[in-house]
User: Fold these one by one.
Assistant:
Number 1:
Amino acid sequence: MTFKRSCCPITNALDILGDRWTLLVIRDLVLGKRRYQEFISSPENIASNILADRLKQLETSGLVAKRAYQQSPIRYEYVLTKKGKGLEPVLETLVVWGQKHFPGTMVFPRVKRR
Amino acid sequence: MTFKRSCCPITNALDILGDRWTLLVIRDLVLGKRRYQEFISSPENIASNILADRLKQLETSGLVAKRAYQQSPIRYEYVLTKKGKGLEPVLETLVVWGQKHFPGTMVFPRVKRR
DNA sequence: GTGAGTAGCTTGCATACTGCAAGTGACAAT
DNA sequence: ATTGTCACTTGCAGTATGCAAGCTACTCAC
């Protein structure tokens, strides 16, 4: 196997996750969000072109799967794959660190479905 | 407290760590590296201006402390603060995820000192 | 059937960030 | 006097970000 920057697992993870938005989209997915408008309405106010770009990248890296939830007009939703769900422990340790060092931060409640 | 993007701990963490290089510098620090040339010689080939910028940012966010290790000519080295060391579990979970999903990746050995 | 609304994007464009290459200043060693 | 080392700094072209607006394909109310 040949790697883009190095054979370090952290480096390869950062080539997918290393920006200010990708992990927030994954956070939303972990919280139960699935649709474009749900991501858009998160408090960080992601721009729609950036969201579209990140969803596309997450799909091609196999962290997220896109599927139609209705036909006519066709509408899509996004869900985490196993690989994507595997990032939950990373988010959890990040939350622990963040809550310790940024007083006043809090976690969002999970979105309820069905 | 008022936050830049939101009161989410992940968001606030990403405002410091959310790019392709910062966590690699922290990885190097965790591995025991301290000097400019040591960071420069990591296999990812960080550009020197980016390294200088990231070290400055890490210092102002209180993750890294800069100190002179000699006078005449004055030379500096960098070490993790407690806040910076607190990121070790995050790196560890990232390594676990990375090794699982990028076959062939490996962790670097710690630098020996003294 | 016209108008308004909704969902999931796409496009244009100015500004900000990234990264390569080269240069700088203060020394130490030969 | 020359070469080398270390810790940066600078110039500049290319890439990414983010705001605003637009687009497509519907549904629903009137």
Number 2:
Amino acid sequence: MAKPKQEDVVRFADMLGAMGTEPRLRIMRLLLSAHPEGMVVGEIGSELAISPSTLSHHLEKLKGEGLVRVRREKTFLWYTANADALQELPGFLYAECCTRNKAIEPQRIVCRQ
Amino acid sequence: MAKPKQEDVVRFADMLGAMGTEPRLRIMRLLLSAHPEGMVVGEIGSELAISPSTLSHHLEKLKGEGLVRVRREKTFLWYTANADALQELPGFLYAECCTRNKAIEPQRIVCRQ
DNA sequence: TTTATATTTCTACTATCATCGAAATAGTTA
DNA sequence: TAACTATTTCGATGATAGTAGAAATATAAA
């Protein structure tokens, strides 16, 4: 397998890990449902019943991995899902798919690129 | 947003979390590169330089989340990526995408279904 | 049966993470 | 400036996860 850059694997693993927790996956899906406007922190918190400090911690994590973006409007912070980042994920996962054994017939089940 | 079943969110979060660590993401990509035959445990371990017990622990986790499958052949255990499970992920993530604000123009950037 | 190899299970340790109350910060309005 | 609201930061705690050596299990071969 062609060696992926060390940083890339870590970066994508961190992205997946950031979504790999129930509350944060809920946040991402909620933000996607409200795409592309996004939502205000308070509304996310009341909808998902997450305390302010805990929610802020989760949003910070998602932001750190580039999965969400923030903009300020008056006193409110609007968070939106970062569509571009999400699009990268499957491509990275399947990048080297089925290349190892030189299969004559590409395996259509998984390999899309 | 239509409420996803509690178990589904947990299940998909666990799947993402299982891939959300550098060694396990490496394992998944390696197994995908060797798809659909898969690889023997020992070969995975030597290629990725992971100790047997640690590797076994990671494979157990991936298996538990349904991301890989195992078959025995003589003394060897062959692990393969579970393509079907991987396919489910994007669909679940985007399931309710952009439905919240009744946008007249569907947002093509993210919403594919 | 004995030996050898592949892989897992056990056990323990350290580090990281999720959670949340309280205090602090930032921006807005009066 | 003072008061108010939205949100973050701080600090602490309990729980979970990654790692790996040693022992155990499983299958095959001699």
Number 3:
Amino acid sequence: MVQKSKKPPSAAKIAAPVAPKRRGRPRAYEPDVALGKALDLFRRDGFAATSLDDLSAATGMNRPSLYGAFGDKRELYIKSYQRYRDDARAAMVDIFRADAPLRERLERIYRIALDIYLSGESGPRGCFTVMTAASEAVSDPDIRNMVVEGLTELDKAFGICFRHAKERGELPEGADPASLAHLASATIHTIAIRARARVPRRDLEAIVKGAIDVMCRAK
Amino acid sequence: MVQKSKKPPSAAKIAAPVAPKRRGRPRAYEPDVALGKALDLFRRDGFAATSLDDLSAATGMNRPSLYGAFGDKRELYIKSYQRYRDDARAAMVDIFRADAPLRERLERIYRIALDIYLSGESGPRGCFTVMTAASEAVSDPDIRNMVVEGLTELDKAFGICFRHAKERGELPEGADPASLAHLASATIHTIAIRARARVPRRDLEAIVKGAIDVMCRAK
DNA sequence: GGAATTTAATGCGAAATGGTACAAAAAAGT
DNA sequence: ACTTTTTTGTACCATTTCGCATTAAATTCC
């Protein structure tokens, strides 16, 4: 068995806490951890360069089981992306909602982002949204819509952040929350890209610090 | 013949203006236009999803000729990337060197960038550097070095720009040229990503305008 | 005209790919 | 014990992939 028998590491919806007494042969895998492994692979190699054999090996499921559980490669990619987004959102939503000073909120968001982008046993994995946008997968309309959704959601979250800060007088009168939000997203994107290129964390933190300085003092 | 018999559309090094009288059977292709076609394909589909058959069809060269001219797929990818960078640099270098006000220089740079990222018959092609960073090709050390080089070169060009503007008094005393340069690069990256996701040019221009406003008024 | 040289064109081959058919296995229901 | 249901595991298939070996074509040099 490749999978560990531990609890799923992220938000798992536990519909039935106890054994539901399913009818047939029990599954030899846990869908949540299998999806996590698939996500890891897709993040490292992208859509085209990840083969079903790779996925099969990483998840410990043979191919027919993969199909039964997640559908074909495209569907598995989409489900991996959804899982990524759920995790990322879960990691950031509290900070976006918190009632802290602008600078502190930004610092915390970028710290989480760096954690996500730099993690990975075989090198930093970057941001799935950026990876997908840059991949051939973006020629698929459904996937492209997910990318746009992801980009817009981030813009909006930052937008609320800056509007809130402006109302509290943390920003000058002339500051434009929408523009600042786009810059904040742009900073997310640039560190995601640089992380993939193995730029060390220290350098990325410096870039983030400079960006925060500009955004917080923006006229 | 697939290739048009026109002159190479971009910087072609013309070592011998007249026929050099090569010995054997003459080539049926022009290396420059063939490389351009290969670049187009790689930009659209990425490294893994572009097959040698695709490249062969697009360039009008059969596979053995491709090998003879450019080496294997990886080498062809690298040469395509070099070509891309040469073209992009050529399109921007004059603006970066020009002696114009900061705002005007930025506006012109981003206009060129949008032209590059949004062009393409079958959808916007984005930025090769960003595409490559997000692809599995980045696990190749040589390719990764090229990516880092590309990122750094852009940072430096913007850096010179902002330092120059500060010396001329176009920026406040407290402005940090390095941070602004990173923000300018980040804006390049964010529009490259969004362009791939087919965000319309109008929206990208709005993002650029907002970013320029912030960067030019930066304290 | 013939040898030498360079390229084009065809096609082979071994490996990998996405996807599926089918039988064996493991559980619950009767 | 036997059927039903669900999953597993093996094997297979058609296609695509990269790379190369070999032959045919086109040109220059002698």
Number 4:
Amino acid sequence: MIRVRFAPSPTGYLHIGNARTAILNWLCARHYNGRFILRIEDTDVKRSSRESELSIISDLKWLGLNWDEGPDIGGKFGPYRQSERTEIYQKVAGKLKQMGRAYDCYCTDEELKRDREEDLKNKRPPKYRRRCLNLTEEEKKKKISEGRKPSVRFFVEPGLISFKDLVAGEVEFDTVNIGDFVILKSDGKPTYNFAVVVDDALMEISIVIRGNDHLSNTPKQIMLYNVLGYKLPEFAHIPMITGKDGARLSKRHGATSVMEYRKKGYLPEAMINYLSLLSWSSTSGEEILSIERLIEEFSFERISRSQATFDIKKFNWLNGYYIRNSSIERITELCKPYLTEKGFEVKDDDILEKMVNSVKDNLDYLSQISERIEVFFFDRAKTIGEMELSFLRESNSRMVLSEFCKKVANIKEFSTEEFGRVMKEIQNETGIKGKSLWMPVRLALTGRFEGPELVKILEIFGPNKTRDIIIDTYNKYLKN
RNA sequence: GUCCCCUUCGUCUAGUGGUUAGGACCCAGGAUUUUCGAUCCUGCAACAGGGGUUCGACUCCCCUAGGGGACGCCA
């Protein structure tokens, strides 16, 4: 049974990079019919919060990633929150101390920092100097009486650690480059490198899929596995997602949280599809892939080793594709909150659907809806711009519109068919056609060069209102 | 500074010794269109550099350069 896990730290919103890690874990679990476990790594008391945990869970659910065991639903390997497993870590750390593979360290942050800076200044790799390795009982007592609380460090033995990563391939590390690292902080909480090993082992995680930034942590963890006699899992370090400058995705690259994209109106299936395309490709070469296809095609072999740049343009394209191919009912429903926010209320759902449908094919993301269908709520001919106005004042435009007004003024029951017939007449009589013929009408009606198709506006406004607006605009700007 | 990873069009990628180096996004042009867009078609554009190995290297090896990551009582 394949068991994989996603283990976020609840210190903020779900990050795009973490979301991708979650997706890959989930795809792997579903592909192999294994179990997907959610574990909360909240050992940093200061930075972790329940709000973050809740928002991460909410985003994961929105993406459609369901887990088989987790803090909210339990499971037989629980608890699934590290803050609730403190005694476990302390017991294991105690065992390590008994084995002589861990020891108390009384160094203060300041002392450690000073050593570090000195190493860096002398261009030496910063490494713990084992100041507390051979402390006598006297010295320990003295430190304690000074009010120092010890942390616990793992004793690193020299040697070569190598393993075969499912993505990175064969990797080897020399432990001389690794200092004795802290496994238990002075507040009694475990550090990441310690907790992750204990939990992954106890929760019987069989494949550890995580970001490539953890690759150099792996030898530390393998030492722990070995000393503790735990069964080693397989490792799969997936390439990181970067911004345009090649550095890991961060705030300065723009939106980095799933929440932000969610709010902007990106579709979850588009996000999963796009993120799965980063550092991975289908054997078929296709890029539009359903969740089912992604599960079916998941394979470590097709995950590339190089980092990928997050490209918002391609994401927009893909999201637009999904919007275009979703039902008008769904899109309309999803658009409602954005319209409400702008005060665009439409009682009749049929009309609203028509409005949304008139621009549905042009959206990158849903929140664009309000500006796109603004034309139906404002008389935009009243706020016409300079460029638009000068186009309207060209002789062709004047001719088209004056003819239009003249022909239409005496028609009692104006209809859509009538509208078409009148335009045809104008075309025949003046010889003006195409853009020159229709743009004046569009401008007079909407005040803008672009917008929904004219027929669709006509359909929503109705022939009479359409006519009235055009005549008004003509009278206002072109009468003399 | 030390260690680890990476390097094909601007971006995401295909490619596992012999290909006109393919696709997608972007961009440009055309078609269509009652605007923009959407759609269809066409085009632009890449093997980081240098050594090997080989009859033959994008592909295998080494070096250099560049990028990224780790070296925290953050995860």
